[in-house]
Amino acid sequence: MGKINYRKFIRAMRENGADGALTIGDYADDGVAYLWLPIPFLPPVYFLLKPEDVHELLVKYGDQAEKMELVARVARSTFGNGILFSNGARWKRQRKLMQPVFHHMHIKAYGERMVAIAEDHIAHWNANSTLDLAHEMHNITLRIVVDTLFSSDVTGAMGEIRQAIEDVGAGFAAQASSPILALMPDWFPIPALRQKRRGAKTFNEVLQSLITERRTLGEANSPQDLLSALMYSKDAETGEMMDAEQLRNELLTLYVAGHETTAWLLSWSLAFLAQNPQAAEKLCAELESLAGKSPSIDDLARLPYSKMVLQETLRMRPPVWFIQRQTHEEIHINGHTYPKNASFTIIIYANHHNPDIFPEPRVFKPERWENDAEKRLPKGAYLPFATGQRICIGNGFAMMEAQLLLNLFMQRFQITLLDEPQIKKGTPIILGFDKPVRVQVTPR
Ligand code: HEM
To answer: Is any atom of ligand 1 closer than 6 Å to the C-beta of 168?
Structure first.
């Protein structure tokens, strides 16, 4: 087990972002490295590199491996006890409540709305217009998640909501990358926390009006969507309904988790296709079977290459590129004993760049996913949606949305990059572009 040089490691990420985190391999001995954060009394953070160790932590010890307390504390000041950062019985209850809405049969019904919203949005892409790629993708995926899960239209408030998400995200990222900021209360008068408070305030107003509107409709007249499921379902044991505070926390969590990641998956996929014309041609050839009709759920089985493009993009640019856990009991993995309260970081980006599993890991090669290759990979090697009991609840929703939209965009437009996409430096929570990437869209 090798010790990480904290300063060197942080500098590597400051300079090269997730690529800097690949230096973890230099420290790992027997596939494990550990880091002492510069905070008194805090136990070390362990980094597991071997796929089988990662799998064991997340699956075998899934019950013990909860969200890391320090990170969850920072997150809770914004997201409260929403599903993403809660633990134990509360998490189990919320997961059980939401799971049916993400069931395969349910999400199939969202397909038509997803395509209709995307079509409406790209109707504004004029011939040869220059667009900010990520900005466009975020606006579309935000509209989709709010429409499908909350039956609400945010088109009019898009700018305000996106700004609030950026403000909350910037404050959160600053705290997540600095242990000193992480320990500060949110009211502390410094710019990053002021920005976070401003974003949270806007969000509270937006969510409050969504909740009030729905309450006015009453249960009988409300649409059968996730918002109604959250609002009107009762706890099987206590018969209690979710209070306003909990409801607000879940809505905020889904607003952010439900669109930001998919927006980056689409942005990176389109960028890779623009850089790899042969792959773009292969995808477009497949689309000919639609004879100009917009893609629908029933077509997806006939469009396997677009799924491979998404799998390869998720490998090279996993939007959630690291995850963290903390165990509350002593655990044993692969000959190592980890003490009670041990913290773990899994760098998904590093797993996905392991040359023993993915030869030439920096080469964009959708073909490596041919013939259901994902099913034959060692467990713990490929984790864009994590694994174990905290696996992404929106996994199926996101893949369906991304496949429909990627096909739609590629069918209608040729996309040319005007800027070179680079990964964001530092330790962002989500792996986006370092600077805005402009594209030119030309109708096909
Ligand atoms: C490409 C798109 C997406 C990616 C890469 C992604 C990735 C992930 C990952 C890695 C986790 C686990 C985080 C951790 O263990 O700390 C997660 C959790 C979660 N995701 Fe996603 N996600 C995506 C889309 C979505 C969508 C569309 C939704 C909702 C509509 C969603 C909702 C959630 C929720 C609620 C959790 C927490 C689940 C729990 O703790 O039980 N995600 N996601």
So the answer is: no
